[in-house]
Write a structure and sequence with these properties.
Length: about 160
């Protein structure tokens, strides 16, 4: 596929998930929740997670918030990919996504939709937009629930 066609495909997928997000809202019940904020551009995400009965796997992830097309699309794609994943696998996927944004990795075929975000790596200032929700999910899974609106995770310290 020609590079221009690939860029157009990336842009199409990002715009599709931005305009028609599939995972906007709040999970019911909420087992984990966290808020993420990117001070450099103003993106804000409130992420809620529903776990299975054993609290070992993700049943659903939803988000609310405001932000650019890249941040909102990344949130929607991430929420879709996390359904059914163990907490351990989800945390590994967060690490893989961060590596992908540095040009060091990509996702396997069954998760190839996430690779659409690779195009963002060409614009270093936008990487923080793409990774915000992923940082927020990691905080929710590792640290439990922070009351929404009282505490937030930021990816501003990221390289």
């Amino acid at each position: 596929m020609a590079l221009d066609n690939l860029r157009n495909l990336y842009q199409q997928v990002i715009l599709e998930h931005y305009k028609k997000p599939r995972h906007r809202g709040r999970t019911e019940p909420v087992h984990r929740a966290h808020r993420g904020h990117n001070p450099s551009c103003g993106d804000t995400i409130e992420l809620t997670v529903q776990l299975n009965d054993e609290q070992t796997a993700i049943e659903d992830v939803k988000f609310e918030g405001e932000g650019c097309a890249i941040a909102m699309s990344s949130a929607d794609l991430m929420a879709d990919a996390m359904r059914g994943k163990s907490i351990e696998d989800a945390l590994a996927m967060v690490q893989r996504f961060q590596s992908m944004m540095k040009g060091e990795a990509e996702f396997p075929r069954e998760l190839r939709k996430l690779n659409v975000m690779q195009g963002v790596a060409q614009f270093p200032v936008r990487i923080k937009c793409a990774t915000l929700t992923w940082h927020t999910l990691r905080a929710a899974l590792e640290h439990g629930t922070a009351p929404l609106g009282e505490e937030y995770v930021s990816n501003e310290e990221e390289d």
